[in-house]
Amino acid sequence: MKYCLALLLVLFGLSTPVLADDVRLQQAFATQQSDLQIQGSGMVLKVLKDDTKGSKHQRFILKLDSGQTLLVAHNIDLAPRIPNLKVGDTVEFYGEYEWNKKGGVMHWTHHDPRGRHANGWLKHNGQMYQ
């Protein structure tokens, strides 16, 4: 029912960008699409240990309104880490979606120092991290 309502809102131009992108994330997951620039938001379901192999990434899992989960891999060599991030917090994001069987990964949530990729960001408690 929620999906149908969201689809109707999108079709009739009554949606907010975040709602439209939540539908896009659902579609991307269902059709195994990647390399999509998407904006959205979710609730922190789990805070993971940083990935320290190669470029360092702050990692956490968001639960979207649709119920889909999304791993966020935020490059902290290029952008500030979100301090004091905890389960239950809301995080807004703009970055590149990559499909995986667990819901997908959001990355490129930072600026591109070479200027070849769309700049992404995260927003937590009114503060931007880019």
Strand order, largest beta sheet: 1-2-3-5-4
| Sequence stretches where pLDDT stays below 50 over 5 or more residues | 1-17
Give the topology string: H per helix, E per strand: HHEEEEEEE
Q: Characterize the overall form.
A: globular
Provide the descriptors you would attach to this structure in a database record.
130 residues, 5-stranded mixed barrel, 2 helices, 35% strand
Which helices and strands occur, and which strands form pairs?
Blueprint: H1 2-11, H2 17-30, E1 36-47, E2 57-63, E3 69-75, E4 90-98, E5 105-107, E6 121-124, E7 127-129
Parallel strand pairs: 3-5
Antiparallel strand pairs: 1-2, 1-4, 2-3, 4-5, 4-6, 6-7
Structure description:
The protein is an alpha+beta fold and 130 residues long. The chain has helices at residues 2-11, 17-30; strands at residues 36-47, 57-63, 69-75, 90-98, 105-107, 121-124, 127-129. The protein has a 5-stranded mixed beta barrel. Strand 2 and strand 3 (69-75) form a beta hairpin. The termini are far apart.
At a glance:
By secondary structure, the protein is an alpha+beta fold. It has helices at residues 2-11, 17-30, and strands at residues 36-47, 57-63, 69-75, 90-98, 105-107, 121-124, 127-129. The N and C termini lie far apart (35 Å).
